[in-house]
Amino acid sequence: MQSQSPALLTQPIARTLLTGLLALLLLAQLMERNMQPVNAWQVLLDDEGKPYWVNSDETVHTQPARGGMQRVMDVIFEVVPKEQN
Fold first, then answer.
1. Are 54 and 42 in contact, with CB atoms under 8 Å apart?
2. Rounded to an integer, what distance in angstroms lies between the CA atom of residue 10 and that of residue 21?
3. DSSP letter at 57?
4. CA distances from 79 to 34, 75, 83 (A)
């Protein structure tokens, strides 16, 4: 059986570490982009105390959603009690 040199044994480890580091850097970039004010909603109350949402492009009077499933989940969370005593 032929023995491998230490350099050959560490190449997969180095590659794995480098891949993990690259993934973390990409994740950090995505998080930074998504947390910019242009990507955020601010919730305010109108004169009647009702909430409305404002971002850099628009103002809406219903909670913003990314899609139909998020709207369904919002309705469920409105109906289900927050605490059960």
1. yes
2. 16
3. S
4. 30, 6, 12
pLDDT per residue over 22-73, tens digit each?
999 999 999 998 888 777 889 999 999 999 999 888 999 988 887 889 889 8
Residue partners of 55: CB distance under 8 A and separation at least 6: 38, 39, 40, 41, 42, 64
Q: What is the rounded distance in angstroms from the CA atom of residue 11 to the CA atom of residue 79?
A: 55
Comparing 7 with 26, the larger pLDDT belongs to 26
Can you read off the two tokens belonging to residue 16?
Answer: 């794995």
Rounded CA-CA distance 63/40 in Å is 13
User: Which structure tokens are listed for 85?
Assistant: 């005593």
